[in-house]
Each structure stands twice: as C-alpha cells, then as structure tokens.
Amino acid sequence: MADPTGHNGGESLLFLTDEQLRKGIEAMFFAYRGFTADPDRILSEKSYGRAHHRAVHFIHRAPGTTVNNLLAILGVTKQSLNRVLRSLIEDGLVESRVGKKDKRERHLYLTETGEALERELSAAQRTRMRAAYRAAGPDAVQGFRQVLEAMMDSDMRKHYLAMKDKTV
Amino acid sequence: MADPTGHNGGESLLFLTDEQLRKGIEAMFFAYRGFTADPDRILSEKSYGRAHHRAVHFIHRAPGTTVNNLLAILGVTKQSLNRVLRSLIEDGLVESRVGKKDKRERHLYLTETGEALERELSAAQRTRMRAAYRAAGPDAVQGFRQVLEAMMDSDMRKHYLAMKDKTV
DNA sequence: TTGGAATGTCAACAACACTGACATAAAGTG
DNA sequence: CACTTTATGTCAGTGTTGTTGACATTCCAA
C-alpha cells in the first residue's frame, strides 16, 4: 500500500499506490523513447541531433524569437545553443537578423530550407501523436495534456502556456 | 485545418488540428524535463547520471534480470550499459551473480545501498507524479496512461506491459 | 569438437551538455 | 561622458552518454 496512513491528500477520488505511480513513470520513459524515435531517424541521416530539432521547432513556433528567449525555453547554456545555431545558420536553415530596436539582439527565423526540415520532422512526430490520440480516444487526450501540464516545472509551464493554441 | 481531406481516421469524435498536435508535442517536451528534473538533481550530487537511474530502476523492478534483458529494455548498446553497471557494481549498489542454469548469464540485484538510492530517486519522482495526478484529476490519469501507451513503439510496449501492475 | 550465444573489455569517436573566461557591441544609468 | 549592465558570441576544457569495431572468454548445444 502506497499510503499506510490512509490519507489521500484531500482528493477523495484518487487512491494512488506506489505501483500505479511507478507505472506512470515507466510509461513516461517508454513513451518518450517512441516520441523521439521518428525525428531521430530523420535527423541522423542529416547529421543533426535532437538539439537541432528543438531549436528548429521553437524558432518555427515563435519566428523572430531572440537567442535569450530561446535559451530560456530550451533550458540550456548559451554555449550549447550557440553550437547548434551556428551549424544551422551555416547550413542555411536559420537566419539571424540584428534587432531594429535593440541592435544587440539577434532575431531568429527559419529559411525555406529550415521550414522544410521542420515540416518533415513535425510531420513524423504529428503522425505518431495523431495515431496515439486516436488509439486512446477523445477523452484520453484531454487527460493526457492535463497530467503533462501539471508535471512541468512552473517556469516551463509559463513558456508552454505562452505559446498555447495560437491558432485556436 | 489539419486534415484538408476531411477524413478523421474513423474516430468520428476526433478532429485533430496540426496546432493541437503540436501542443501535444510541446507538452511532452516540457513535461519530460520536469519528470527528470528531481532525479537529476539527486544524481548529480552523487556523480551519477540518468543512465545509472534507469539501470537502478529496472533492476529494482525486475530483480535477477539478466544483462541481455536489461539491454532490450533500455535500448542501448552493451558497451554503454556495461560502463554504467561497472560503476554501480564497483560502488556496491548492484550485485552481479553468475547464473545457476546458464553460467554465462549474469543476474543483477540491488544491494541494500542500491535499494536506498532507488527509493530516494523514486520517491522524488513519485511525489511529482502524484502531484500531477491529483492536479489533473482521476479521469485524466487514465487518459494520460492510454495516450502514452499508444505512443510507444511496439517492442517497448511489450516490455512496458510485461511489468504492468504486478501488485494489483 | 565445432559453432554460436552471452558476456565483458578495449579503443576511438561523436553529440550534447556543462563551467569558466573573455570579447564585443549596444543599451541604460549616473 | 564614464560606467555598468545586457545580449551575444567564442574559445578551451570536461563529463556523461551514446555509438562502432574488434577481440577474448565462457559455455551451451548440435
């Protein structure tokens, strides 16, 4: 029994055994592997990695974002991000424009080539996500998103919500 | 519109826009960061990494598992796993016993020290998972698990289901 | 006895993260 | 204007985790 005291934290409907929680942990582990498998295959052919994918994804989502903003979203050091951005810029997938108001800032945009890669990666990942959603059913989708959102650190949740459902 | 053909794959209740799917992708990204944050902090103090955590976790879940079985679950090369196991064995967290039937096989067990680390890591992760479950509510939990399970590669799903809810 | 499976080890390498230090340019502040 | 801070970039070094390839040992099984 997970909670020998018999208390359940005030949520009277939830009895969470350690075993159930561990299964959730393992589900996250195995699912994340599947989640990254398709993009990883595409990226390895182009000698890119997950770090490139993340940069391309968020530049696509927030065109014109600054380096600092991207740094906050990705949660890595500037040296780490810079290595990735340099190769993407050299290869003509990302364009870096000096800011108009503040000339210290660099605003990042995907080129047409960059957008093409983003579509390819995103299409693979969306296909899997769509299949998972359909297999699980409509009610499951909302629960999935709710639990994931609650699992985030609050800083990350801000970034997540900030770009939430722009087109809806 | 996500699907200009108007088809929806036979699940008449699901209209999945690209935007909704992308939000799901981002939710996975941000949530996984939160999911690993607590163990990562504990591990870095002990100069271990996620690879050690994974090994410890699955040895705890399946005591006596062979190296080959662990290899299949973790999906890494034996050289990579061996490096991790060697340090865990040297540090007295894992015990490797020669198989009785097949003496080529090594059966892996956590020592009391190993179990203690597992409890510490697992407790941190379960606390976050429990909080997320409670914040999202009981209905959400089932949906969460269903979507994650559907997102796995079939090989991984086998491993996942094989150790499913042993105590339930 | 020979073949193959399971395991372990060595070497080399790459991706991706980190720290620390330093440089440059531009903006803000006194 | 002098000074500080901010944003960015770069160089060097290090660590973890993953990869390939090669090779040795042990041992089951045909």
Would you write up a description of this structure?
The structure is a homodimer of 168-residue chains. Chain A has 168 residues and is mainly α. Chain A has a domain at 31-127: Arc Repressor Mutant, subunit A, CATH 1.10.10.10. Chain A has seven helices and three strands, in the order ααβααββααα. Chain A has helices at 18-45, 50-61, 67-74, 78-90, 112-136, 138-151, 154-162; strands at residues 65-66, 94-98, 106-110. Chain A has a three-stranded antiparallel beta sheet. In chain A, strand 2 and strand 3 form a beta hairpin. The longest helix of chain A has 28 residues, at 18-45. The termini of chain A are far apart. Chains A and B meet through helix 1, helix 2, helix 5, helix 6 and helix 7 of A and helix 1, helix 2, helix 5, helix 6 and helix 7 of B. Chain B binds a DNA duplex (30 and 30 nucleotides) through helix 4. Chains A, B: This is MarR family transcriptional regulator. Chains A, B: Pfam families: MarR_2 (PF12802). Chains A, B: Keywords: DNA-binding, Transcription, Transcription regulation.
